[in-house]
């Protein structure tokens, strides 16, 4: 199923709530804040354009959660994954935010 995901599936959900369900049982309430297609990162012959998703939440809520294998859960899209998300610098986001990125090649 992961190979059928695209930026077009997630773009309508920008600004909406997602839950990250970590491998250790933690659940983190986040918001999808970015959905970016990356045509220059797309591998030759790939069936889809590479894209990335960035989820954000208050840093206090994220605590020491650094990412890892997670299910992402959304009311309309359901459960997707497991995906690997990495905690990234929250550049351009509100102060005291935590950000997590998933990259799809």
Q: What does this molecule look like?
A:
- This protein is 8% helix and 50% strand.
- The protein has two helices and six strands.
- It has one domain.
- The longest helix is centred in the N-terminal third of the chain and has 4 residues.
- By secondary structure, the chain is mainly beta.
- The protein is globular, with a radius of gyration of 13 Å.
Describe the secondary-structure layout:
Layout (H helix, E strand, L loop, with lengths): L6 H4 L6 E6 L4 E11 L13 E8 H4 L4 E8 L3 E11 L8 E8 L1
Antiparallel strand pairs: 1-2, 1-4, 2-3, 3-6, 4-5, 5-6
Residues in helix, %: under 10%
Amount of beta strand: over 45%
The helix tally amounts to 2
Rg to the nearest angstrom? 13 Å
Average pLDDT works out at: 93
Number of distinct beta strands: 6
Pick out the low-confidence regions. none
Largest sheet: 6 strands, antiparallel, barrel
The general outline is globular
Count of discrete structural domains: 1
User: How far apart, in Å, are the first and last alpha carbons?
Assistant: 14 Å
The arrangement of helices and strands along the chain is: HEEEHEEE
Class by alpha and beta content: mainly beta
Strand line-up across the major sheet: 1-2-3-6-5-4
Protein name: DUF6916 domain-containing protein
Organism: Methylobacterium indicum
Domain DUF6916: 6-104
């Amino acid at each position: 199923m992961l190979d059928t995901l695209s930026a077009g599936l997630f773009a309508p959900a920008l600004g909406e709530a997602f839950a990250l369900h970590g491998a250790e049982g933690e659940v983190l309430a986040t918001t999808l804040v970015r959905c970016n297609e990356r045509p220059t990162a797309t591998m030759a012959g790939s069936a889809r354009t590479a894209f990335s998703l960035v989820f954000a939440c208050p840093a206090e809520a994220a605590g020491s959660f650094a990412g890892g294998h997670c299910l992402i859960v959304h009311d309309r899209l359901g459960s997707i994954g497991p995906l690997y998300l990495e905690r990234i610098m929250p550049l351009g986001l509100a102060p005291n935010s935590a950000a997590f990125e998933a990259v799809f090649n």
